[in-house]
Design a protein that fits this description.
two-stranded antiparallel sheet, globular, alpha/beta, 7 strands, 13 helices
């Protein structure tokens, strides 16, 4: 860890920022500077005040709803700023817990100086915009599912059933032709159908915005290479890359599997070994997308995948084919030979799929570095 003259802890809120600093020496002073308004002018004034006393300053604050604007601003002023993972901030066991903004800022400064904080990877403005789009897309997909569920429950209540594939053109024609005895019932169904149609349109608009933003995103080549994998379209690949960011910070694929919470947990003590299910760390939404992709694996390229892979690198296509062979075989062995439940087998497939994602992404990052 680099040596600085001062380590500054910031407890950031919507309206205020509590500021504290710890001098660079291990036994140096730890002091609170009070609270300042969360405004650019006040932040600049605070930074200038510290710069008069200290030459090299390192700032740290916990990730939260205020985003990364403060991080970018402090970096722009020429200082070092790290964003901390709140869930991994150490807490002394047995010590009575007292919490307020001043104490939190003092603890951040002290732990920042000691090097005991866990820092997260911080995205640039374009990457954060992609994360916002992916989140909006996830919410819109949830709204589509809820709208369709309401329609299905409504039809079940009135004894109307459709036995073929749902939500295609024929199903929508069947829904449009439904007739009920009371005009209020007809109006209720139409309102549900309008809601579903609007949700689908919003999701399609967000998909278009994701495609448009790809041209300005430095990680777009990685996203396109990942689409060589079966089950990963442009939206799912963008969600994975937006969540991970820099794949180089994971030195091996198992680290990435652990990041997505797909590795088995354990709760053991002494001679008692108690395995658990997967840890479920990280983003539950991206993990759900990986499960969705894992259900599609079988050893076949398919016409649509063949067209999609046309402009991709040969290395990505080779890795994607290895993934199809291995993951299909993995699923078959687990379900047919070891008689595991399909959910358990798909979890194993999703875990190994992350390994192939890591391989393609690291290869793409190497090609981007050469360029």
């Amino acid at each position: 860890m680099d040596n600085f003259d001062a380590y500054v802890g910031l407890d950031v809120h919507k309206d205020t920022i509590a500021v504290a600093f710890a001098e660079g020496e291990r036994s140096g002073e730890v002091c609170s500077l009070g609270s300042i308004p969360n405004e650019t002018t006040a932040i600049n004034r605070m930074v200038k005040k510290l710069a008069v006393r200290f030459e090299a300053i390192s700032f740290a604050y916990e990730a939260g709803p205020c985003g990364y604007g403060l991080h970018r601003h402090l970096i722009g002023l020429g200082h070092v700023c790290d964003v901390v993972a709140p869930s991994r901030t150490p807490v002394q066991p047995g010590k009575r817990r007292m919490k307020n903004d001043t104490i939190d800022a003092l603890n951040l400064a002290r732990l920042h100086r000691a090097g005991e904080l866990t820092y997260i990877w911080t995205p640039d403005a374009t990457h954060e915009a992609m994360q916002d789009l992916v989140k909006a897309r996830r919410i819109s997909s949830h709204q589509v599912r809820k709208a369709r569920q309401r329609i299905s429950c409504f039809l079940l209540k009135h004894g109307r059933r459709y036995e073929r594939k749902k939500w295609g053109h024929r199903h929508r024609v069947w829904l449009a032709d439904l007739q009920f005895g009371h005009v209020a019932t007809q109006f209720a169904l139409q309102s549900y159908l309008n809601e579903e149609e609007q949700a689908v349109d919003r999701r399609a608009q967000i998909d278009g915005q994701i495609e448009n933003l790809m041209s300005d995103w430095v990680l777009a080549p990685i996203v396109r290479e990942l689409t060589a994998l079966r089950g990963l379209d442009i939206v799912i690949a963008a969600a994975v890359v937006a969540e991970v960011g820099d794949f180089a910070r994971f030195e091996n694929p198992r680290r990435l599997m652990s990041y997505f919470g797909l590795v088995p947990g354990e709760f053991s003590s002494g001679s008692s070994i108690r395995p658990r299910g997967i840890t479920k760390a990280g983003s539950s939404d991206v993990r759900a997308l990986l499960f969705e992709a894992a259900w599609l694996y079988r050893p076949k390229v398919g016409q649509w995948s063949l067209v999609r892979q046309k402009d991709l690198s040969q290395a990505a296509k080779d890795i994607a084919w290895k993934a199809q062979l291995r993951l299909y075989g993995r699923y078959q062995r687990l379900t047919q030979i070891r008689h595991k439940r399909s959910q358990v087998a798909v979890t194993a497939v999703a875990r190994e799929l992350v390994g192939f994602i890591w391989a393609i992404a690291r290869n793409a990052e190497g090609e981007m570095a050469v360029r």
